[in-house]
Design a protein that fits this description.
Chains A, B: It comes from Perca fluviatilis (European perch). The structure is a homodimer. Chain A is of the alpha/beta class and about 525 residues long. Chain A contains 19 helices and 15 strands.
C-alpha cells in the first residue's frame, strides 16, 4: 500500500531547501580532513557549506595527496611537516595490498592474524605520529594560532579518523562537529554510545548482529584487542600533546567524546541496528545523487548489450593493481558472459580479455549505476560505492580487499543484496557462477531495491541533514543539550561497580547479622536447656 | 551569530507539508489510546492523520472518561467491560491526591515510601487488570476479530501505558507504532534502550543526570524496584493472556520490545541526554502551536496589568481541588503582588482572594502562554503544560503533586528555567518569595528562552515527524531495519556473562597449566640436584 516518494522529489526538496533555508548568517568553519577517500566525502560537504555562504578554511599538509592547496570553495592553510612521511603515496598501498592478499590467501589462522597486525600496526602508528606532528606544528606556531584566533571561527569540522583537530578546537575554545565513520579505535559509535559486544559487531570482525557463542567470544576479544591497540599504540601520540599543551587535567579521550555533533556516515539499511546517542546524526549516503546522462560513446556501448545488460566492476581509488593471476581469471569469467562489462582497471591489461569487456581508467560510476541496463556491480565494498549501489538499487558482487571492506560487504550479504567473493580464492569458474547467480536470481535485485526504497524514504536528504546540524552548532555555539557528560565519570562509577559492591556488602552484612542473631539465640537456648538438665 | 528561524515559519512549513506531502495513499489505522491527559495527545495525532486522509478506528471502553464514542475524525469500537472498574472517575483522583499530599507532608522516609506504594500499587494493578480484561473481551469476540481482520488495517497505533494493543496487533499480524512516554515499568526508554543507572535517572526518582554516590545507589534501587513491580504486579495480567491466546513460545515483553517505531514524547531540551535506539523518534512538544488572540475580556484583563504583567496558574485537568489550607496561602501570596493573576481553579473559592486575581474554570492556556505580558506560569509539571511553556519561553514555578510531575519539574529546575515548590510546605511567605524570584531574576526567563530557541530549531515540526514515521510504517509494512532483535537473547548472552565466564575459565586454565608446568619443572630440577648430590 502507498506509493513511494520518488528520488527526484526528495532531491528537489533537498536542493531547494539548501538554497532558501531562512535566517542563517554566514559562518566561519575550520576543517581538519583526512586524506584519500575520506576527503571525497568531506569535500562534498565543504562544497555545500560554501554554496550556503559559509567561509571554509581547510588545514592540509604540504605533501597532501588529494587535498589541493587552492580551490574555489575553500581557502587552505598548508603545514609543512619536518620529515614528510608520505604515507598517502600510491606505492605504499600497492605494496600494502600485495602483502595483505598474501596473508589472506593463507586463510584464517592465528599465524595469519599475527602477520596481519605485524604489517598493519607500524603503519597505523606512523599515520598517527604524522597527524600528531601536524598538531605540534600548528600549536607551536604562534603566528598561525594568533591568526586562527583573529579569524574568529564559529566551529571546527573534522574527520576524527586523525583527530588532531580536536586539540586545536580545544585550544581555540570552539564547538566541534565530526564527519565520521572511523575513529582512532575503530567504528565511531564505540567511543560515544553503549556497544554491547553480544550483538554489535566490533570493528574488524565481519559478523552479523546475530552471533553464535563462538562468534560472540571472538567479537569480545576483538573489542579488547581494538581497545588495547588504541590505548597503547594510537592515543599516546595525542596524550603527549594534550599533556604538553593543556596540562594533566585534560584528557584526550574526553576531547574526542565531547564533540557536539557526530555526523555519522551510516544508514540503517546498511548498518545493523544498535544503540546510539542523541547527538549522533545519521548522514549515510549523503554523497548520493541521481545519475546524469552518459557520454554518447559510453551510452552506445551500454545500449549494445541489448536485453542482457551491463556489469560494472571497480575496486575503488586506492587499489591500483590486482595481481595478474587474479585479473586474468576475472577477464576469463567476464568473457564467458553474454552481458557487456565495463571494468575500471589501472594495472597490467589481461591478455585474455573478451570482446564484451571495456577496460577504462575512470568511469562515471554514479551515472552508470543509475542506468537501467546495469545488472550488477563488482565492487570492493568501500562505503562510497556501496551507498551509490543502494541509492540506485544495483546488487553487488563483493570482492573486499582491505580494511572495512570485509565488514561492509558482509552487511549487504546479510540482507541478501550482495554475494561476497574471497579475492585470493577466486577462479574463473566460481567468479562466473557468482556473477550468474547475482544476475539471474531476482532476490538480489529485489532485496537491493527494497533497501533502496527504505534508504530514500526520508524526510530530508542526508546532505541537507548534515548542513542543518552544522548550522545548528553555529547558531547555538554548540549542542551541549544533546551531549551526555557521562564519559567524564570514572569507569567503575559509569558501570555502577561501586554501587553494586556497596549493595552486595550491605546484603552480606544484613545476612551476617541475621545469621549471627539466630546462632546467638540457638546457643543461648542450648545453654538454657543444658542448665535445666543439669 | 545567525538569526533563528522563526516559530511561525517552522509551523508554516509543518502545515504546508502535512497537506501536500506526495505519494501517500490513505491508510487504515487501529488505535488503542490511554484515557485522561494521554488522550489529549493521541487525539491530536489522530486529527492530523485524519486530515492526511487516513481512516482511524479508536478502541474505547463504554465508561471512557475522555474518549468520545463519536467524533468527526475517527470511528470507534466500544467495548463494554463486565464490571466497569471506572478507575478514571474524577472522585478517585481527588481522594488519591489528598492521600498523596498527606504522605508527602510527612517528608521523605521509609514509612512514607511504604505508605506511598501501599496506596499506589493496588490502583496500578487494578488499572492493568481492567486493560487486560479489555484484551480478553476483544480477543474472545470472534465477530469483532473477524471484522477487524476484514477491515485490513495497515498498522496499530497505541499508547503502551496500557499495552493491550500489542496483543491485538500480534493476533492481526500488524506492525505497531507507539505514542509513548510511559510504559508498564516506567519511562519508555528503559524497555528498549540501554539505560545505565549511573547517569540515567530512573522513573520515580527526581534526580538529575549528575548524581553523587548516594543518589546513584538510590537510583539503582529504584530501578530494581520498578522492575520488580513490573514483573510481579503488572506483567502477569498480560502474561496470562499471551499464554492463553498465543501459547508458551510468545513472550509479552518481547511483543512490547518489538514495536516498529517508538514516537517518544520527549525532547532533549527537557530530558537529560541518554542512550537511545534507531527506531526511537523524538516528538516532544508535537502538541505545541503558536498562540491565537485572546477574547476581548481576557485581553482587557491582561492589558490592565500594565508594565507588571500577568502570572498564570493551572494544576492541570486531573486536579480538581487542592486543600483549602493550601489555596488560601496561594491566594494571600498572589494578593501581595503588583502583577495580575489568572488562576484556573475548580474547588472551593478562597475567601482571601486579592482584587488582582481572576479565578477561571478553564483558560486558553496556550494562547495566554504566548502573550507577551505573561511573566511566569505556576504549574503542576504535566508534560503538556511544560512543553507549551518551553515553546513560548515562559519560566515556571513548579508545584508537582502526583506521578511524574516531580521529575518533570526537576528537569526544568536543573536547566535554571524553573523553581520548584513543595505544595505541602507552601506558605504565603515562601510562595511569594519564589514568585518574586522567578519574575525578577532574569536568569529564569533567559534560560527558558534559550531552551525555547533550541527546541524550535528543528528541520521539521515534531507533529510532522510523527506523521512521517506513521506513514513510513504504512508504506513499508513496518520498520524492521531500525529495530534490534537483541531483546530476544537470553539475559546472560545479552550481557555477555557466558562469554566473560568462558574467557575467565580459559585464563584460569592457562594460568594453571603455566603454574603447573613451572612447578613440575622445579620439582624435576630439585630431584636431579638431589640425585647428583647423593
Amino acid at each position: 500500500m502507498g506509493s513511494l516518494p520518488g528520488v527526484s522529489l526528495l532531491l528537489l526538496v533537498a536542493s531547494v531547501s539548501l538554497r532558501s533555508s531562512p535566517g542563517v548568517d554566514a559562518g566561519k568553519i575550520l576543517v581538519f580532513p583526512v586524506d584519500g577517500s575520506h576527503w571525497v566525502n568531506m569535500n562534498l560537504l565543504i562544497q555545500s557549506l560554501h554554496a550556503r555562504g559559509h567561509e571554509v578554511t581547510v588545514v592540509r599538509t604540504a605533501t597532501s595527496w588529494y587535498v589541493k592547496e587552492s580551490a574555489p570553495h575553500y581557502r587552505s592553510i598548508t603545514v609543512t611537516l619536518p620529515e614528510a612521511i608520505s604515507i598517502e603515496e600510491e606505492d605504499f598501498f600497492v605494496t600494502f595490498l600485495a602483502k595483505m592478499l598474501e596473508i589472506q590467501k593463507e586463510g584464517a589462522s592465528l599465524l595469519g592474524f599475527v602477520k596481519f597486525y605485524w604489517e598493519m600496526l607500524p603503519s597505523l602508528s606512523m599515520i598517527h605520529q604524522q597527524a600528531s606532528l601536524l598538531g605540534v606544528k600548528i600549536l607551536e606556531n604562534k603566528t598561525l594560532m594568533q591568526s586562527l584566533r583573529d579569524t574568529q571561527f564559529d566551529m571546527v569540522l573534522l574527520d576524527p579518523g586523525l583527530p588532531v583537530g580536536v586539540l586545536v578546537a580545544h585550544e581555540l575554545k570552539l564547538p566541534t562537529v565530526f564527519n565520521v565513520r572511523w575513529i582512532t579505535s575503530g567504528e565511531g559509535h564505540f567511543v560515544v554510545a553503549p556497544s554491547p559486544t553480544s550483538y554489535v559487531p566490533t570493528s574488524g570482525n565481519a559478523v552479523s548482529d546475530k552471533m553464535n557463542f563462538g562468534q560472540r567470544v571472538k567479537n569480545t576479544l576483538h573489542y579488547f584487542f581494538n581497545t588495547i591497540i588504541d590505548k597503547f599504540l594510537v592515543c599516546p601520540h595525542y596524550d603527549r600533546l594534550v599533556e604538553r599543551y593543556f596540562g594533566p587535567d585534560v584528557n584526550f579521550y574526553h576531547l574526542l567524546q565531547g564533540a557536539d555533533i557526530w555526523l555519522m556516515r551510516v544508514d540503517f539499511v546498511f548498518e545493523f541496528p544498535r544503540p546510539t546517542m542523541p547527538n549522533i546524526v545519521y548522514i549515510g549516503g549523503f554523497q548520493c545523487k541521481p545519475s546524469e546522462p552518459l557520454s554518447s560513446e559510453l551510452e552506445e556501448f551500454v545500449q549494445s548489450s541489448g536485453e542482457h545488460g551491463v556489469i560494472l566492476m571497480s575496486l575503488g581509488t586506492l587499489v591500483k593493481g590486482l595481481p595478474v593471476e587474479i585479473t586474468s581469471e576475472i577477464a576469463a569469467a567476464f568473457a564467458h558472459l553474454p552481458q557487456k562489462v565495463i571494468w575500471r582497471h589501472v594495472g597490467e591489461r589481461p591478455n585474455n580479455l573478451g570482446n564484451n569487456t571495456l577496460l577504462v581508467k575512470w568511469m562515471p560510476q554514479n551515472d552508470l549505476l543509475g542506468h537501467p541496463k546495469v545488472k550488477a556491480f563488482v565492487a570492493h565494498g568501500g562505503t562510497n560505492g556501496i551507498y551509490e549501489s543502494i541509492f540506485h538499487g544495483v546488487p553487488i558482487v563483493g570482492m573486499p580487499l582491505l580494511f572495512d571492506q570485509f565488514e561492509n560487504c558482509l552487511r549487504l550479504e546479510a540482507r541478501g543484496a550482495a554475494k561476497v567473493m574471497d579475492a585470493t580464492k577466486l577462479t574463473r569458474q566460481n567468479f562466473l557462477e557468482t556473477l550468474q547467480e547475482v544476475i539471474h536470481n531476482p532476490s538480489y535485485r529485489n532485496n537491493m531495491k527494497r533497501l533502496s526504497s527504505l534508504h530514500l524514504d526520508k524526510p530530508m536528504h542526508p546532505l541537507e541533514t548534515a548542513i542543518f546540524w552544522i548550522e545548528f552548532v553555529i547558531r547555538h555555539k554548540g549542542a551541549a543539550h544533546l551531549r551526555t557528560e557521562s564519559y567524564k565519570m570514572s569507569w567503575y562509577a559509569y558501570y555502577s561497580v561501586d554501587v553494586v559492591c556497596f549493595l552486595i556488602a550491605i546484603l552480606l552484612m544484613l545476612t551476617a547479622i541475621v545469621v549471627g542473631s539466630i546462632r546467638f539465640l540457638c546457643i543461648r537456648l542450648c545453654r538454657r536447656k543444658k542448665t535445666k538438665k543439669e
